[in-house]
Amino acid sequence: MGIPTGSTAINPATCISFNCAFCNAISPEAKHELARIARVKVFRAGETVLAEAEKIDFIGSVITGVLRVQKTLHDGRTQIVSLLLPSDMFGRVFANTLHVAIEAATDATVCTYDRGKFEALFERFPEIEHRVLTCVSDELDAAQEWMTLLALQSVTERMASFLVILRNRAVSQSNSALTIQIPISRKDMAAYLGTTVESVSRSLHELANRGVIRIVDAQNFEIRDCRRLAEIAGYTPDGEDEGARKYRLNC
Amino acid sequence: MGIPTGSTAINPATCISFNCAFCNAISPEAKHELARIARVKVFRAGETVLAEAEKIDFIGSVITGVLRVQKTLHDGRTQIVSLLLPSDMFGRVFANTLHVAIEAATDATVCTYDRGKFEALFERFPEIEHRVLTCVSDELDAAQEWMTLLALQSVTERMASFLVILRNRAVSQSNSALTIQIPISRKDMAAYLGTTVESVSRSLHELANRGVIRIVDAQNFEIRDCRRLAEIAGYTPDGEDEGARKYRLNC
DNA sequence: CGAGCAATTGAACGCTGTCAACCCGAGTGG
DNA sequence: CCACTCGGGTTGACAGCGTTCAATTGCTCG
């Protein structure tokens, strides 16, 4: 429970090699200083990375695996408010308590920075704080976007949106073509999509029956009709506005 | 459409007198510099403050009235992702485009800062950037909290949560006791609660029939049973954990 | 081989959206 | 002063999407 399976120091060269969206946008000097305080931690699926309403010890970024960011109501109902994939940052600066729980949805390795040391770097490297501010703003955008889809779309529409998002993430990491890998359970998918495992199954098979996707196995899907998937997710073919760009699939 | 009804300079003394959560947490020097670049703008109900996917001209904070932060899907469905009450900040730094639309839900006056000038102050006053970072982080928390309630709670539960949030905001501004004023239309309430005007009406009258609230008129409600309202909103009487504190009503 | 969990499939119920009618107060104009 | 219109809010009837409950399959692991 919250106890990382391992924690080791890493050298700057190793850290710089991480394909980390945060680190890649700052200067070599700042990157070097960050690498000095970086520690790698390993978590097994199901372990708690940061507990809800507890002190925030460290800031981190995902190297491999998937973390789920979730909130739990008093009666036990839980909702995943965000999925953290490799290169995503998490944690919070200038605050002592976290209002969400972060758990490993799969086995995962994360790069962590002691929060005090991390914040101390802001004075010498304002660009790091700029970068954090940008990241948090992007997270806010993503949260508001997903909130909108949760509130307005049907389960099948949300599933299509989810697949489009995963696909675009994969493409940006130059992964291969039309196959999407989702290394999380149906339960986690349901908790993220705001529905049940049964509805997740039904919506996936509905998309498959309509010929939009092909279900390879429980974790792998092949996109057979990009255009229709994007349409179901909310993309409208006419015009190339902001939303169109966002949902355009590179295929 | 997006053209403020008025825009006037204000002097530092006036700005400092604003009961603004942002300004109140920074040093007098920084506050003074902010006041120098502050401009007051007035919007009538329905006017656009900042349009979706357009350039962000300014950062602002609400002085009076209510702004709605909303997203619109391509088929026209819209969701309010946040309501901005007096002292709330809005806008975004280090980015050119906004992914939400901000509109006046009521007649409103807003304190605005030219975005370029605002960001320029970060260098001389890092505390301002710290404060922005804290504000955005708080917004993210609120967005994730509301996303959770949207996904997990029934309409009546969400209505109770909404009333609790409004009540706590009012209390923190030392407004009077058990009456909640909601100066927005049923349509906006529905768009925020992720439901329809009919369901809003039904849930309000259900709470009234159960004796939890009294409907004074369309915009004013009296809380008759704090404890039960908090319970419906998700508060559990046993224990005083983080959630309990959040939902505790001061009455 | 059996236990246990994940995923799927089927059937029934219920919350809530949809459609429609109605009420009511505020403007407006005769 | 009254009739009319119009928009916001309320109420009722009904249907549908999605949850809930239940049963089945298939896979992994001991």
Describe this structure in words.
Two copies of one chain form a homodimer. With 251 residues, the first copy, chain A, is α+β, with helices and mostly antiparallel strands. The first copy, chain A, is built from nine helices and twelve strands. Chain A has a five-stranded antiparallel beta sheet with strand order 1-2-9-4-7. In chain A, helix 3 (115-124) crosses helix 4 (126-152), helix 5 (155-172) crosses helix 7 (197-209) and helix 5 (155-172) crosses helix 8 (226-233). Chains A and B meet through strand 6 and helix 4 of A and strand 6 and helix 4 of B.
Lay out the secondary structure.
The structure is a homodimer of 251-residue chains.
Chain A: E1 6-9, H1 12-17, H2 28-37, E2 38-43, E3 48-50, E4 58-64, E5 67-72, E6 78-84, E7 89-90, E8 101-104, E9 108-114, H3 115-124, H4 126-152, H5 155-172, E10 179-181, H6 186-193, H7 197-209, E11 213-217, E12 220-223, H8 226-233, H9 242-247
Antiparallel strand pairs in A: 1-2, 2-9, 3-8, 4-7, 4-9, 5-6, 5-8, 10-12, 11-12
Helix pairs in contact in A: 3-4, 5-7, 5-8, 6-7
Chain A binds a DNA duplex (30 and 30 nucleotides) through residues 154-155, 185-187, 195-202, 205, 218.
